[in-house]
């Protein structure tokens, strides 16, 4: 892999389009779940598998993306990924029963799991370090705007049309980048055809990340003491420990965890995990507060969060340029200070909190997050030698999935425990039974946001130690640098 003198903007545009469709699809279905329950006659716990299954496939395949990116050309990976995504979308659109819909959704996930690591690696290869901030800023634009549009569009379509229309809309949008990839995409990297896949590592990785993701995702609804939750989390932890020890012994590990010897990459991972957990608090808790306690419709709920996402979208390229000029710490410290302050403000919600105030706080919070996410991640990746980029991106994307699942389950559990405790206290004090549920749930949500504030504080404390990384010359000289390969396979 080599950094390009002149970035191949046409190739990057094709990859961007595919990544946008894949990320857009992740949040598209959430608001449609109640309609799917009615139409296909399934329970809430069953329909939730459309979300959990998607996340599991991502968690299993993303760690293996480092191998695929080193072994196969970016063109081949893109075509296979978009083909799987389009096939899964078609299956979901025509699904006569829930099982077919679930299969389609998981086939979609198999394609989308490879898109983000692929795009990030091409970006790292195509741009020199001094210009990566701006490039990754536009990458952040895709990561933010796509999932923001999903719930709003989904709410409108589900209210006026069938949930199947969601997939019929996505299908042609997925076929366009697939066609462009087949006819226009060139290879940017040279592949190591001799690279072997350690099958035991793949099994351990799947059990480890899959078990943890499923266990923590299920804990919010099944409870922490449920045998299935305890068993899957235990299997996940043990498998990951064995997986980690095995990677340290292999000459060609599935996931090169030795890159944690680079201090700035390790620091960026820790900050990213903390901020992902805190960010998910608003994504999970706010819809509960808005729709259940405030009685606001799903469409209005999506619209409330839309300005914040658009602010992140606008800020991403700007943040990238500022990162190139000033470095990550100058952005991360004030950004995380904003996140801490606004998260605390969300811990003070009341039954009378206005729609506009909630929207304003949420939007400011997203502004803070936009100053942190991509600069911190890019700063960590910049410290790595080029041959380690696939492993760095795979680790970052996997940790985001795991942090999201763990953070969501943790905060939902805190909310539930606090809600039950408060409900008992209110009942004992003779509070009107009709208002107990809303008051108790409000207190649970506020307490969960209060805990989330401390998680953000950890990230803020860590951000003080961020430094601009400099790759050692000796390390760069040891890298295997390949000439750009511009032939289609």
Automatic annotation (TrEMBL):
Residues 11-471 form the Major facilitator superfamily (MFS) profile domain. It comes from the Bacteria. It is a multi-pass membrane protein. Keywords: Cell membrane, Membrane, Transmembrane, Transmembrane helix, Transport. The chain crosses the membrane at residues 9-29, 49-69, 76-103, 109-129, 136-157, 163-183, 195-216, 228-245, 265-290, 302-323, 330-349, 355-377, 398-417, 447-466. It is found in: Cell membrane. Coiled coil: none annotated. PANTHER family: MAJOR FACILITATOR SUPERFAMILY MULTIDRUG TRANSPORTER MFSC. Belongs to the major facilitator superfamily. EmrB family. This is MDR family MFS transporter. It comes from Planococcus shenhongbingii.
């Amino acid at each position: 892999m080599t950094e390009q003198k002149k970035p191949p903007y046409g190739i990057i545009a094709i990859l961007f389009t595919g990544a946008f469709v894949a990320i857009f699809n992740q949040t598209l279905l959430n608001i449609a779940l109640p309609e799917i329950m009615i139409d296909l006659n399934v329970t809430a716990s069953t329909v939730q598998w459309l979300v959990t299954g998607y996340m599991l496939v991502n968690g299993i395949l993303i760690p293996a993306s480092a191998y695929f990116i080193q072994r196969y050309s970016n063109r081949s990976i893109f075509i296979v990924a978009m083909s799987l995504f389009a096939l899964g979308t078609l299956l979901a659109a025509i699904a006569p029963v829930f099982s077919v819909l679930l299969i389609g959704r998981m086939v979609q996930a198999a394609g989308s799991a490879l898109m983000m690591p692929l795009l990030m690696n091409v970006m790292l290869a195509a741009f020199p370090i001094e210009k990566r901030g701006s490039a990754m800023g536009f990458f952040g634009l895709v990561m933010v705007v796509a999932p923001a549009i999903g719930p709003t569009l989904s709410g409108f379509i589900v209210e006026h049309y069938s949930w199947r229309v969601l997939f019929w809309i996505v299908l042609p949008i997925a076929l366009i980048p697939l066609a462009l990839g087949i006819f226009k995409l060139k290879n940017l990297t040279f592949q190591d055809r001799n690279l072997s896949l350690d099958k035991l590592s793949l099994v351990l990785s799947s059990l480890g990340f899959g078990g943890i993701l499923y266990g923590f995702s299920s804990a919010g609804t099944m409870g922490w003491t449920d045998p299935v939750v305890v068993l899957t989390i235990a299997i996940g932890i043990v498998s990951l420990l064995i997986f980690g020890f095995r990677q340290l012994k292999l000459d060609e590990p599935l996931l090169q965890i030795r890159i944690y010897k680079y201090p700035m990459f390790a620091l960026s991972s820790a900050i990213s995990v903390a901020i992902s957990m805190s960010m998910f608090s608003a994504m999970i808790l706010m819809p509960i507060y808005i729709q259940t306690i405030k009685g606001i419709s799903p469409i209005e709920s999506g619209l409330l969060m839309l300005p914040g996402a658009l602010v992140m979208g606008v800020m991403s390229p700007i943040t990238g340029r500022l990162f190139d000029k000033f470095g990550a710490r100058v952005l991360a410290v004030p950004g995380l200070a904003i996140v801490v302050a606004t998260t605390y403000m969300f811990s003070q919600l009341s039954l009378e909190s206005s729609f506009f105030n909630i929207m304003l706080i949420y939007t400011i919070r997203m502004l803070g997050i936009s100053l942190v996410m991509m600069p911190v991640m890019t700063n960590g990746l910049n410290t790595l030698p080029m041959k380690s980029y696939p492993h760095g991106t795979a680790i970052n994307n996997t940790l985001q999935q795991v942090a999201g699942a763990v953070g969501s389950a943790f905060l939902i559990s805190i909310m539930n425990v606090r809600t039950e405790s408060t409900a008992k206290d209110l009942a004992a004090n003779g509070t009107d039974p009709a208002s107990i549920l809303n008051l108790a749930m409000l207190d649970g949500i506020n307490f969960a946001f209060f805990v989330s504030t401390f998680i953000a504080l950890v990230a803020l404390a860590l951000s003080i130690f961020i430094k601009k990384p400099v790759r050692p010359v000796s390390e760069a000289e040891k890298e295997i640098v390949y000439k750009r390969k511009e032939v289609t396979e």
